[in-house]
Amino acid sequence: MNAFLRCLCCVWSFLALSSACASSRELKSSAGGQREYVLSDDVSVRRLAPGVWIHVTLAGEDFGRYPANGLIVEDGEGTLLVDAGWNPQQAERLLTWAQNELRRPVRAAVVTHFHEDRLGGMKALLARGLPVYGLDETARLAGAAQKQVPSRTFAEQQGVGTLELFFPGPGHSRDNIVVWHPSSGVLFGGCFVKDASAKDLGNVADADLAAWPASLDRTQGQFPQMRTVVPGHGLPGGPELLTHTQELLRAQPVPR
């Protein structure tokens, strides 16, 4: 009997160790001690601030698996999704993660402009009947490009739960908005703001280079309390990312 119990304990220990190892593949510790979840080879989520998570999705091979940032923000018993990944499959993974891991299902979403890295996954959100907020101009541009359009639109400012949506003016695109989370001091700048390692402005096919500097000034004036700024691509930083974007604009010749 004692031998049987010893054997049973060994089996139990092995199973517990195997389970712990499996969990560690799903839940990692990032450099700052923040929690990171790897949902698939093209979707990950990590904690940015209390109640605020940054999601990173990778484009397909046609875009060189280029990473794009978005947010998941806890809001009472639900969450708010900022940008939906490159495709519906990635959006589904983010929705499932919020439901199963945070126990806070996504109840609304925001798209910050009409490019594919922002609204590529929106079809999955609309299929679930989730309200998706975007600028009036985003709906117009997406419709003209025969893409899915946000179901709820606004002209300049809109509150969605604990988030404030703000159109500072044209920049990276004619419809880029920023998203402010007051309690954490996190400003999601999207592609309107470049990360600290950026050497140029990236894709400017739809940009308004002449208006962009004033739009950045309006953002700084609107949110002077910002502490963390999340660009559309690359690592988060502070308010200096807006200054860095201004410097890149000064180095960029404005077409005549």
Name of the CATH first level: Alpha Beta
Tell me the total number of β-strands. Answer: 14
CATH homologous superfamily annotation: Ribonuclease Z/Hydroxyacylglutathione hydrolase-like
Query: Which stretches are poorly predicted, pLDDT < 50 over at least 5 residues?
Result: 1-26, 29-33
The proportion of strand residues reads 25-35%
The main β sheet shows up as: 9 strands, mixed
Helical content stands at 25-40%
Q: Largest beta sheet: what is the strand line-up?
A: 1-2-3-4-5-6-7-8-9
CATH fold name: Metallo-beta-lactamase, Chain A
The number of domains: 1
Gap between N and C termini, in Å? 89 Å
Helix and strand content put the structural class at alpha/beta
User: Under the CATH scheme, which architecture would be assigned?
Assistant: 4-Layer Sandwich
Please state the CA-atom Rg, rounded to the nearest Å.
Answer: 20 Å
Average pLDDT reading: 89
- The ordered string of helix (H) and strand (E) elements is HEEEEEEHEHHEHEEEEEHEH
- DSSP helical segment count: 7
Categorize the overall geometry.
globular
Cofactor: Zn(2+)
EC number: 3.5.2.6
Keywords: Antibiotic resistance, Hydrolase, Metal-binding, Periplasm, Signal, Zinc
Organism: Hyalangium minutum
